[in-house]
């Protein structure tokens, strides 16, 4: 059914010259090619650092902090799901544990945020890993469902036993000394974590973790304990989640059972879907879109959820690969029309 | 292969039942250092179950497996692999999303590879990527071609079978249990695989080869064990096994059936 008179054309996709042979190997021969690698990273770093400066007021600066907190969770989710093969719906579990630990450390011993956040990060991650240890042999949807139960369980325990402030939560937690300190601490930590995880997944250890996702039987046949590597990966993710929880508590100066709310489990996943699974920077981009949109839609009241869902559905239907996967592909290749 | 030294691997009265099915029924055999033991048998005779029981992927119902005189029955798979008892999988299990050479970085990360340095490592492990490509080259991946750098999912079966062997070699194994490394290969691919197996034996690696390709197996094996319905039918030199009437019956059915087949 082709029209013979019209010239036959097709779109040709060509890799830009620097990609060599295999994934992750580049050949850089000039400053131009070097800048090709550096510029996207520089844009990300400078953009994130400049973001608090260009926000119109305190309210929107606070939104940026929340974006970073969700982004920490989302990067953790992406790492665990795409590079280790454990789909965790337990973001709220990590936030809650980290948040409550920071709150207790602060109110009981009067430790400043400078100490409570690292302490809550490490201790919380250890606690979360310990509690998740029995679920590590599970895979796929089973692991997802069990991790979804953990935050619900802990919230009910706190409510029913009326411990840790019960439904009122823990009040009177110290905030950050300065607004800018709060802003840049969370932005800088997010950037450090993002680049650290990116590097981790390309180290030899990261390859083992990716091997766990691809084929855990082959890992066992290679003389390595699969559960140990899964536990390590959960620890890393939990640390990121607990860190975000601790930040959240000091920003709100309050810790309550709403930290175990489903939002902290679901929004990072939505952000990862929008941003692009497996890119690690995608989840951050997703959070940069979703969290402010959610704030803007606040005026619509309950209708907010409808708009929110529409955005999500539109992304899943029309750009299911995610923004960054699409963008990376376009960046590495150029297209042109050629005569056939 | 003197009879006085303790065998490298001893299997005694190994049994495994799945529900009511006796997949393995009291199988005993020894494997001596440096030999190639072939294991043959019709489908469902328990060949892969033996591999799984020895390497700890499933726990035997009864019986004992001893490696270098130590009891390893029921130990977890990664501990058995750490001792140098490695296996390939009949259905290949590479890391499909990684390039071929990165597949070897993973076993080279294991505690055993760090101790031993990998195949030919001589106790020191260099850069894992380089060592991985070295091993791939020895096992038949052309170093200067694209093949070692291609995503594993795009490799043909012949290379995937070699990759399975390479994963074992990365651990500097004492023994490799090959679960059908010839199956699914073309005649020319098998022809190039046979010298590789012989070279492994010359390097002092003990091999158990489970095969359906009898002609090639009988060429390389020192001894052959025949399984049928989970029991050991016989064991002996390849020539003896080939001539044995019971083996023919196990493979082709009863003599009457064979005669019908001949006339058909």
In terms of topology, how is this protein built?
The complex is a heterodimer of chains A (340) and B (264).
Chain A: E1 9-15, H1 31-54, H2 58-83, H3 91-109, H4 113-132, H5 140-161, E2 170-171, H6 179-202, H7 204-214, H8 216-221, H9 226-252, E3 254-255, H10 263-275, H11 281-296, H12 303-318, H13 323-332, E4 333-339
Antiparallel strand pairs in A: 1-4, 2-3
Helix pairs in contact in A: 1-6, 2-6, 2-9, 2-10, 2-11, 3-4, 3-5, 3-9, 3-10, 4-9, 6-7, 10-11
Chain B: E1 9-18, E2 21-31, E3 36-40, H1 47-54, E4 62-67, E5 70-71, H2 77-82, E6 85-87, H3 100-108, H4 111-116, H5 128-138, H6 157-169, E7 175-179, H7 187-202, E8 206-210, H8 214-220, E9 223-228, E10 231-236, H9 238-243, H10 245-252, H11 255-263
Parallel strand pairs in B: 3-8, 3-9, 6-7, 7-8
Antiparallel strand pairs in B: 1-2, 1-4, 4-5, 9-10
Helix pairs in contact in B: 3-5, 3-6
Task: State the main characteristics.
A: mainly alpha; two-stranded antiparallel ribbon; 69% helix; B: 264 residues; alpha/beta; Rossmann fold; six-stranded mixed sheet; 11 helices; globular
């Amino acid at each position: 059914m082709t029209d013979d008179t019209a010239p036959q054309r097709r779109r040709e996709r060509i890799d830009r010259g620097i990609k060599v042979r295999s994934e992750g190997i580049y050949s850089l021969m000039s400053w131009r090619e070097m800048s090709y690698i550096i510029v996207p990273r520089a844009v990300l770093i400078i953009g994130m650092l400049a973001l608090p400066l260009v926000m119109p007021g305190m309210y929107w600066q606070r939104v940026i902090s929340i974006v970073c907190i969700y982004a920490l969770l989302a990067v953790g989710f992406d790492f665990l799901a795409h590079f280790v093969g454990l789909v965790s719906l337990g973001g709220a579990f990590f936030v809650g544990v980290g948040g409550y630990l920071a709150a207790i450390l602060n109110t009981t011993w009067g430790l400043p945020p400078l100490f409570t956040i690292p302490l809550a990060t490490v201790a919380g991650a250890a606690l979360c890993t310990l509690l998740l240890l029995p679920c590590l042999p599970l895979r796929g949807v089973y692991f997802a469902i069990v991790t979804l139960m953990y935050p619900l369980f802990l919230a009910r325990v706190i409510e029913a036993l009326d411990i840790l402030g019960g439904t009122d939560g823990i009040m009177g937690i110290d905030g950050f000394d300065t607004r800018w300190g709060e802003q840049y601490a969370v932005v800088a930590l997010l950037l450090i974590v993002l680049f650290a995880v990116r590097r981790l997944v390309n180290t030899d250890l990261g390859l083992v973790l990716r091997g766990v996702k691809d084929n855990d039987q082959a890992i066992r046949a290679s003389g390595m304990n699969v559960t140990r590597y899964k536990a390590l990966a959960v620890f890393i993710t939990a640390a990121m989640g607990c860190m975000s929880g601790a930040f959240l508590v000091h920003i709100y100066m309050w810790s309550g059972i709403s930290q175990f709310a489903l939002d902290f489990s679901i929004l990072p996943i939505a952000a990862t879907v929008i941003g692009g699974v497996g890119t690690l920077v995608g989840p951050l981009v997703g959070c940069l879109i979703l969290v402010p949109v959610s704030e803007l839609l606040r005026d619509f009241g309950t209708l907010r959820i409808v708009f929110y869902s529409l955005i999500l559905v539109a992304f899943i239907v029309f750009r299911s690969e995610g923004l960054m996967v699409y963008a990376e592909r376009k960046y590495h290749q150029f297209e042109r029309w050629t005569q056939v | 292969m003197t009879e006085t030294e303790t065998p490298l691997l001893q299997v005694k009265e190994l049994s495994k039942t799945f529900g009511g099915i006796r997949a393995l029924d009291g199988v005993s055999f020894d494997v001596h250092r440096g030999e190639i033991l072939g294991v043959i048998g019709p489908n469902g005779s328990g060949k892969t179950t033996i591999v799984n029981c020895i390497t700890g992927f499933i726990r035997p119902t009864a019986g004992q497996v001893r490696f270098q005189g130590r009891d390893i029955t029921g130990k977890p798979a990664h501990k058995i692999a750490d001792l140098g008892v490695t296996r390939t999988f009949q259905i290949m299990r590479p890391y499909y999303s990684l390039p071929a050479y990165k597949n070897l970085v993973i076993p080279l990360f294991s505690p055993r590879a760090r101790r031993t340095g990998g195949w030919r490592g001589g106790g020191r492990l260099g850069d894992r990527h380089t060592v991985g490509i070295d091993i791939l080259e020895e096992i038949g991946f052309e170093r200067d071609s694209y093949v070692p750098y291609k995503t594993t999912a795009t490799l043909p079966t012949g290379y995937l079978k070699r990759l399975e062997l390479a994963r074992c070699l990365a651990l500097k194994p004492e023994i490799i249990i090959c679960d059908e490394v010839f199956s699914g290969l073309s005649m020319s691919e098998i022809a190039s695989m046979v010298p590789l197996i012989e070279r492994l034996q010359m390097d002092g690696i003990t091999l158990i080869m489970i095969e359906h390709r009898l002609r090639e197996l009988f060429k390389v094996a020192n001894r052959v064990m025949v399984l049928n319905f989970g029991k050991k039918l016989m064991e002996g030199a390849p020539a003896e096994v080939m001539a044995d009437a019971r083996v023919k019956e196990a493979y082709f059915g009863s003599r009457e059936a064979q005669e019908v087949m001949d006339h058909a």
